[in-house]
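seq as requested:
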Amino acid sequence: MKKYLNIILILLLLSGCSLLKRNIPDPDKKQNKDILETVEEVEKEIGETPFIEDSESNIVETNLVMSGSFYPVKESLDDIRREMNELKARIVEYETRVTIPTVDHDMLKMVKAPHLKHRITLSNGTIVHGNILREDSEKMTVETQLGQITLDKATIEEFSEVSEPTADIKMHGKFSGPEQRNNGESFIYSGSLINSGKFKADFVRVIFKVWNENTELIAIDSAFVNGSNTKYSNGVITDSALKPGEIGTFSVSVGVPKNTKYEYETYDISWEDED
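struct tokens:
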């Protein structure tokens, strides 16, 4: 048995040497033939084939093809900077749209702050605007735009009512008319209006009514005043607005039925508050 082991070791050494020199052709083919014969003899005696490691069986062939970069870099540094600037501009535009809500002027007209009817002067010079809710001999409760406050009446110098600031359109002087035209079938009334209030009046209109002796309405008609040119948020442009202290003229033609007996006339003034 020891003999056989020695033979196997010799074969392993010879096979290792042959692996180191596998790329060099062996000039002695007879030696290889003898080795094969010796292996066959050992196989017959021990009944099995001695293990000879074939290093070529452990060689894994890899057909790796070197391609380009992991991902192609097609953009230059200037292109990246340009894209970043475009993104910044879009973000600024988006934030502007979010932070600046659109204003619905019709909704603003519906939401109005309450009118503060009283003006209260305190001993330290402070002026409080609000509505007096209740008071007794010692205290006064006032509703302000910031909420309710309670004042010590000993600190109150005086208080008074404040009228709500609005437009106030009146006839400026006396109107002229009726000037009868078209054989008495048209009554012409002319004159001027003045805004004595503290706010602008929009779409100022004067309406004239003609009555008979039985206080029956014969005819009615109206006309807008010739005032300031104003453009509103909805795109409407008019010249029938009167600013505080402004005077505008008018001329109203009222069509009266033929052969109608005229007795007297009345007028009304209307306007709107678009602010």
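Helices lie at 2-20, 29-46, 77-99, 105-110.
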